[in-house]
Design brief:
By secondary structure, this protein is of the alpha/beta class. It is built from 33 helices and 28 strands. Strands 19, 20, 21, 22, 23, 24, 25, 26, 27 and 28 form a ten-stranded antiparallel β-sheet that branches. Strands 5-4-1-6-7 form a five-stranded parallel β-sheet. Strands 12-13-14 form a three-stranded parallel β-sheet. The radius of gyration is 34 Å and the shape is globular.
């Protein structure tokens, strides 16, 4: 388009030729034929159509009538008028309607839903100013009067003298000879004409073959078509992708403006930065544009003049809200403010007993004792009982309970904690006062949302400070945790979902929120506290330079979409549909976001899979959105295994599927109902793998179970957890029935003082295990003879320390055997080989002394004695 501007400015052509539909005019619907569906409600209102004709039905009837009209004219050719088409509609369905009335109704619908392309309008004005002749060339069934009515728009100015060449008028379309007629009529050579249009054949190939200079005005590129495809699946029940077909506003122009933003941005490569920009422009941008309009409208209706957007999301969100308000002409301002879950959790603590401290500790993920003391402004010497545990990770309730007792067992420590919390609250209040947030009783927060944690904790901190302000919250979405806000009498509203409703939308967004948060965050560390004067104290930036570049690209894409949207809002003089109030607008945007979270593309997986996420609740844990330890497990996963993954396993399970073609196809087929979930279960009764752990007192405990599933590769996966402060061994009852099993690898990530990873994946590893009702057959093959048969992982021997918690991942394949136990058994590995393997394990863990002790235990067992 920049080239076209230069050609016109230089007067390097005699004629500017333009296609009409999807070039000069575009429709506020996903596809042109969707207007036919929207026509149904208008015909019903005018009593011209029976109630049983729904939007999807009329859409298909109208498409079918056009096909029949084009094939039924014989010698007259395939070019038809709108009157010809409506003659092929069944007259008994519209008995009260004259042909002219039906045609007029469709033209009126087209007038309502067609929009002037503002970029093309600029080119038209420039051409007319340069005395370059403008013509319109269109494959259309509209008459000349119809087109004059549709093109009579202030954005296009006067089109007097602009000649229109219609396919119906000449009996030929653009690909079959209409351009030859145009050139003869103009009396010009092809090189003197520049033509702009969206159709690659009719507007590019056909005129280019004659020598006309052409510009392909792309509406939907291939990548965006793939994005639209994933959004169509939840709406299949509407028929042939006709979302909100009976809605008065179509899709509000969202699809067309997404396409236009992508086209104008010109980022069509598969580079990570370009993929990130397109994600911002086509997915996050529309959603946040709607959210910003809703927030601005809510504030406008309530008379709220200032909105407060907690950092780190607040920098971008406040910008989007301010632009939305300005485009709509509303007087308000959104401002960033420094708040976080962590600082408000400290500020709202009002009791210092064991239970409240325990609850505070457990909010964080794998916090060390040293980090906890730092948060509480305590030194190691202040709590002598914890001096030897500074590097211990607080990973289970038992440790948290002991730490809580140590911190609250003396009045002196309780007073220290009270001082710490009071000081944290005062520093927070200084920051709020300095920002101006406490100048009014109306303190409304704007955030992405989820649980309303910051709002609830801030409200409690303000009450403790005897400040009579009840903060409100406007969120993109909240889950059922937001109930705690309502229980405090706080206003907390959600745009796409509120308090977990609609369930499907809330669950999907809150299950995988990290990429959305990272896309919106400013490029700075998270808020971990305030200085005495209320200035923010930030953690170090954990993201890589690559992630920051990609994140900035997403944000540029978000801004690009909102800029395009707001341009049409301003140009419409108040007539442009808003995204704040109509429920169907929210549904449309929710579908965009939910579809993207459920079915990311391989390119999106390549970009976002390596992004990292901070715990942001006191600990220094930084986790990849797709952790490295799961990448090797991808060939073993089934769609049902993805559903079982814990939030800490993967923040975005669907992103794992997107990186493997087979898994992605299985997920898609399962979600669409094309596959029965049972296909991923072994035949017969379902069975499961169980994890048990043995503590230092010699007792075994049940912990976790996972159903055995078989994926498209014929492989299986299980991940289970245990939590106890003195775990010695872990046993796996794999696979929970008689079977031959090939174990490819076992990995245990444990907390034993620090974080350690133990792995068993070869004969030497398997030889060092103990077996209960199971036999090692050599290499990586095992026979499990009963449902309770198990293998024992010598965790203590490997880690050289007791484990306090851990997760065990197993990658395996199963060949079920008869439950009767009558089948013949394969020969096990020679007993001497197993003994040697066990001794090697003892030697590796304990040296020569340990190996001797192990040999002694073996000898005692063989003699029938007991092992100490």
């Amino acid at each position: 388009m920049e080239d076209v501007h230069r050609v016109i400015a230089d007067r390097s052509c005699e004629v500017l030729s333009l296609d009409i539909f999807d070039t000069v005019l575009w429709r506020r619907v996903p596809r042109p034929a969707d207007v036919f569906g929207l026509l149904a409600s208008r015909l019903k209102t005018a009593d011209l159509c029976p109630d049983w004709i729904t939007g999807p039905i009329l859409r298909r009837m109208r498409i079918n009538a056009e096909q029949k009209a084009r094939t039924g004219r014989e010698a007259l050719g395939t070019e038809v008028s709108l009157f010809d088409i409506w003659r092929y509609m069944p007259s008994n369905v519209f008995p009260a309607a004259a042909l002219d009335d039906l045609v007029k109704a469709e033209v009126e619908a087209e007038r309502e839903f067609t929009v002037v392309d503002l970029h093309i309008a600029e080119i038209v004005r420039l051409a007319l100013k340069q005395d370059i002749r403008v013509i319109l060339v269109s494959d259309t069934y509209f008459t000349e009067d119809h087109l004059n009515y549709l093109l009579d728009r202030p954005e296009l100015g006067s089109l007097q003298g602009v000649k229109v060449y219609r396919s119906h008028q000449h009996g030929l379309d653009k690909a079959s000879g209409l351009f030859e007629i145009v050139l003869r009529d103009l009396g010009l050579s092809p090189e003197q004409v520049v033509h702009i249009g969206d159709n690659p054949v009719a507007d590019v190939e056909a005129p280019a073959e004659l020598g006309v200079r052409t510009v392909h005005y792309v509406r939907l590129d291939e990548s965006f078509e793939a994005v639209l495809d994933r959004e169509r699946e939840p709406l299949d029940h509407l028929g042939d992708y006709a979302p909100h077909i009976d809605d008065v506003d179509g899709d509000f122009g969202i699809t067309s403006l997404r396409a236009k933003t992508l086209s104008l941005g010109g980022r069509n490569s598969t580079s990570a930065v370009d993929t990130a920009w397109r994600y911002g422009a086509s997915v996050v941008g529309p959603v946040l544009t709607g959210f910003a309009e809703w927030v601005a409208w809510k504030a406008h209706e309530a008379g709220t003049k200032v909105l407060w957007c907690p950092m780190r999301e607040g920098e971008l969100l406040s910008e989007l809200v301010n632009k939305a308000a300005k485009a709509r002409g509303w007087e308000l301002e959104a401002k960033p403010i420094w708040l976080s879950r962590h600082v408000t959790s400290l500020a709202c603590l009002d009791t210092f007993d064991e239970d409240s401290v325990h609850e505070f500790i457990r909010r964080s993920y794998q916090l060390t004792v040293r980090q906890l003391l730092s948060i509480l402004h305590l030194r190691a010497g202040d709590v002598p009982g914890l001096a030897s545990e500074l590097n211990t990770i607080i990973d289970n309730g038992g440790i948290a309970e002991k730490v809580s007792i140590a911190l609250t067992e003396t009045p002196h420590l309780q007073n220290r904690l009270k001082g710490t919390m009071t000081a944290a609250r005062e520093r927070l209040l200084r920051s709020l006062k300095a920002a101006g947030a406490l100048e009014s009783s109306d303190l409304t927060l704007v955030d992405l949302g989820w649980g309303g944690t910051i709002q609830a904790q801030l409200a409690k901190a303000l009450r403790l400070a005897e400040i009579d302000i009840a903060p409100a919250g406007l969120y993109l979405a909240t889950d059922d945790r937001a109930i705690r806000c309502y229980q405090q009498g706080l206003r907390a509203e959600g745009y796409l979902a509120q308090a977990g409703v609609p369930t499907d939308i809330a669950t999907t967004i809150v299950r995988s929120p990290e990429v959305l948060e990272q896309c919106v965050n400013a490029l700075c560390g998270s808020l971990i506290g305030f200085t005495e004067d209320g200035s923010p104290v930030l953690s170090q930036v954990s993201e890589t330079n690559a992630q920051n570049s990609e994140r900035l690209a997403v944000q540029d894409g978000i801004r690009a979409f909102q800029t395009t949207w707001n341009r049409y809002v301003r140009n419409s003089d108040g007539a442009w549909p808003d995204l704040a109030r109509p429920q169907l607008a929210k549904d449309r945007l929710a579908n965009i976001l939910v579809s993207a979270l459920r079915s990311p593309t391989a390119e999106e997986a390549g970009v976002f899979g390596d992004w990292v996420h901070e715990d942001n609740f006191g600990s220094s844990v930084v986790t990849k959105i797709v952790p490295d330890d799961l990448k090797s497990a991808i060939p073993y996963l089934s769609p049902l295994d993805l559903d079982d993954l814990h939030m800490r396993d993967s923040f975005w399970p669907s992103l794992i599927a997107a990186s493997d073609t087979g898994l992605a196809s299985a997920v898609k087929a399962l979600a669409s109902g094309q596959l029965d979930p049972a296909i991923f279960e072994p035949s017969g009764e379902p069975y499961s793998t169980g994890l048990h752990y043995r503590t230092g007192d010699g007792k075994w405990h049940n912990s976790d179970r996972r159903r055995v599933r078989i994926n498209h590769n014929g492989l299986s996966f299980a991940r289970m957890r245990f939590e106890h402060h003195d775990t010695v061994d872990v046993s796996l009852s794999l696979p929970g029935r008689p079977a031959l099993v090939r174990i490819d690898w076992i990995e245990a990530e444990i907390i034993a003082g620090g974080r350690k990873v133990l792995r068993w994946d070869g004969p030497e590893d398997f030889a060092g295990m103990s077996y209960i009702g199971a036999r090692w057959l050599g290499a990586n093959l095992f026979e499990f003879e009963t449902a309770e048969a198990s293998i024992v992982l010598p965790v203590f021997l490997r880690a050289k320390a007791l484990a306090s918690s851990g997760q065990v991942t197993v990658a395996f394949a199963v060949l079920p055997q008869s439950m009767s136990s009558l089948a013949s058994h394969l020969p096990a590995v020679a007993k001497l080989t197993r003994i040697k393997g066990r001794l090697r394990e003892e030697y590796r863990a304990r040296g020569a002394t340990g190996m001797a002790a192990g040999a002694a235990r073996v000898a005692i067992r063989k003699l029938g004695g007991t092992t100490p």
